[in-house]
Amino acid sequence: MDLLLVLFYAAGAAAVVRLVVLVRRTRGGPGGPLQDLYEAAFLAGGPGRVADTALAALHLDGRLVIGGPGVAAVVHRVAHDPVERAVFDVRATAPSGALHQLRLGVMTHPAVQEIGDGLAARGLVTPPEPRQALRRWCVGVVMASVLLLPSAAVVITVVRFGEPGDTGVPFVVKVLPLFFVCFATALVCGASAGRRVSPAGVAALAAYRREHVYVPGSDVLAAVATNGIHALPDRELWERLRNAARLQGQSLSGPRRAASPSPHPHPHHRSSSSSDTSAAVVLWCAGADTGGGGGWDSDGRGGSSCGSGASSCGSSSSSCGSSSSSCGSSSSSSCGSSSGSSCGSSG
């Protein structure tokens, strides 16, 4: 028996098993239906969509006035849920009432971030850590399949050429199936690395849309939560929220972004750069394909993503060796990933 051939195939099998295990970790959890409007908003668009939905709800019933040019004023401080309380709390600490600052404060508020924690606990969304581990393994396996293993196999083939007992089948030919299997597995598994919403989350969001959006007389806020602010019938409100999100992205994209303090530290934030605003939203960010209706916090329109006007995440979100720093869609993205990407705009 060829010991080197056995070792090659054993290493390849171990890598494939590891990839499968990591994929299963990104899809864990019991699943289940969405419990309220803001869970639907978070699942469909991340923290940015939650903030937009809450601001629209408060403006439409007169408790908050959003006027031009992008200034919010409290009329009746009456909150019906923790997210609305977060809006009022952030507004109380923002004397200027600038809408883009208010939106960012709501996105980074623990009440909004904890929605993501609850969804993750039920397996509807996946935190960055399992996805990043899967991404690293995908890149490693692809690099090994494309560069390391073929090179080693060619060297072994050359060294063994003409040796006594040579069967005539080159070593590199014997391991070609291993290369193809490892490469294909890494590519397939890598497709899961960029998806923040699990299959259970996709199903839950689709069920919510069927029950609350695709029915006669449906609530406009349900449409905003699941489809984005372009579903607002009030075009002035839509324009102000859109502009606020874009301005928010522009204000975070400059070289001074790292100096911006985090208004609402979150217990999950353990980034080494936790002093900047983008690190305040380490756990939940934009850029994933939800499997229905666009990526996180995306309305399919132009705008910045993950805190910069050029839709740059500030980190590599590659799947299996292809570097892609795009945050999924070029509309509004929400909060930063564990590599420190920031907040975006909603189109």
Keywords:
347 residues; mainly alpha; 2 strands; elongated; disordered C terminus; transmembrane helix; membrane; transmembrane; Ser/Gly_Cys_C_dom
In one word, what is the shape? elongated
| Strand line-up of the largest beta sheet | 1-2
- Quaternary arrangement of the chains shown? single chain
Distance between the termini: 62 Å
Helix content: 40-55%
The arrangement of helices and strands along the chain is HHEEHHHHHHHHH
What's the count of strands?
A: 2
Mean pLDDT: 73
Strand content: under 5%
Point out poorly predicted stretches. 255-282, 285-295, 297-347
Number of H- or I-type helical stretches: 11
| Major sheet details | 2 strands, antiparallel
What structural category arises from helix and sheet content?
mainly alpha
Rg over CA atoms? 24 Å
Biased composition (Gly residues): 296-306
Keywords: Membrane, Transmembrane, Transmembrane helix
Protein name: TIGR04222 domain-containing membrane protein
Biased composition (Low complexity): 251-261, 307-347
Written overview of the protein:
Keywords: Membrane, Transmembrane, Transmembrane helix. It is a single chain. With 347 residues, the chain is mainly alpha-helical. It is 50% helix and 2% strand. It is built from 11 helices and 2 strands, in the order H-H-E-E-H-H-H-H-H-H-H-H-H. A two-stranded antiparallel ribbon has the order 1-2. Strand 1 and strand 2 form a beta hairpin. It is elongated.
